[in-house]
Amino acid sequence: MLSSLSMLIYSSIILVWTSILLADMQIKITQGINTAYPIAIIPFKYINNNQYDIFQPTEDIASIIANDLRNSSKFNTIPVEHLPHQPDNISDVIPMFWEKLGINIIVIGTIQENYDESYIISYNLIDTSKNPALVITENQFSIEKKWLRYIAHTISNEIFEKITGIKGIFCTRIAYVLHTDHDKYPFELCIADYDGHNQISICKTHEPLMSPAWTPDGNKIAYVTFDSGHSKLVIQTLSTGTINNVINFPQHNGAPAFSPNSKKLAFALSKTGSLNLYIMDLDSGEIKQLTNNRNNNTEPSWFPDNKNIAYTSDQSGKPQIYKINIDTYNSTRISWSHTSNQNPAVSSDGKFIMMVNRHQGKQNIAKINLTNNQEYILTDTVLANSPSIAPNNTMVLYSDTNTNITNNVTTSTSSLELISIDGKFRAHITGNKNDLRFPTWSSAYFHSQ
Q1: Is 7 inside any structural domain?
Q2: Does the pLDDT value for residue 23 go beyond 70?
Q3: How far is CA 256 from CA 137, 163, 178, 269, 356, in A?
Q4: Is 446 inside a domain boundary?
Q5: Residue 119 belongs to domain spanning
Q6: Range with lowest mean pLDDT among 87-91, 312-316, 319-323
Q7: pTM of the model
Q8: Which residues contact 337 (CB under 8 A, 6 or more apart)?
Q9: Domain check: are 115 and 243 in the same one?
Q10: Phi then psi dihedrals of residue 330, to 5 deg
């Protein structure tokens, strides 16, 4: 069942923002699924204990699990119409049927409706290479109707981790800025499940919004707003909607980033003329300056040790990635390739950095492997921006700007894109025709027990 803390956090967000729930988006895979590991998710058997109730579950559990595993870049889930048979339990599993398809792993499950309209969800992860078939893992959840989708993601996490040894990210959330044609409130800050479902607008304004950043626990978001006529940094509590102004100096205030231990907030200010990095202690409110020069230093991203920050600086003439220690102030250059590199995102294990690479008129997502200092360009586009790494370090979310010319009028729209860290898997988050910019992936998980 859902833990009481997770339920409280998750439900409080839903209760506050239900009135401005937006249309769901979905992930459309464009490359890489054919090379992934095959797995079959059998449609869950529905068991109705109420003979007078013909109500069916509002969510297709098996379909959600299949989509999750497919979206991870690690699995190729077999379409239902290609399944040789659909066993209800392990005694019905015939290994030879699956061997012909080259499938060694299948998932079967049941959805049982109780008299109070709650559900009991059970599943088995089965190894069909054994004869008889072998249950690898199993679990059961008792939940209210509204948590069906959440439990499907939880099952996906358990399956993903059991097979790969890597923690799943299917119960995480993303945030991004939505730009619409709305006359009064063209800018919105939105949050959604990792797959674009349960999209919620948490802030609407007539002035631009930029650079959202999650707290490590996923309870708050810092971002840049221009609603007062100039940029300022605010922190919004998701459960209440309360917005606190935290940084509001003259000129530019931007690029917030919370430390992994939640104790500090890094950001960039131009109150002295050029952009420099600063850190605020969130308990005391004390602010100290990290960089102090006439160059532009911005876009901080914390290393997991809470002591070092990657950032963008043009001190070499063009923007490149540097690393600075917050205690010693020692700074070293990290990136070297091509015209420029900027907008770093440090992985949660500190082993690599994703960044935006500019070269020969193109702006692509690139990776620095910090163990061997090798740099790789992963995309082939014109205006990729704002990389954000999944909490398990397997995927990157970013925005991509497309330019269209109609009747000699040029328009640009940005979309959200997914790519695996090796560049072999790519997907497009669809379902919204508006501008989507500044994506950021929350590191917080909502757990079940």
Answers
A1: no
A2: no
A3: 41, 36, 19, 10, 18
A4: no
A5: 18-164
A6: 87-91
A7: 0.90
A8: 357, 359, 366, 375
A9: no
A10: -70, 135
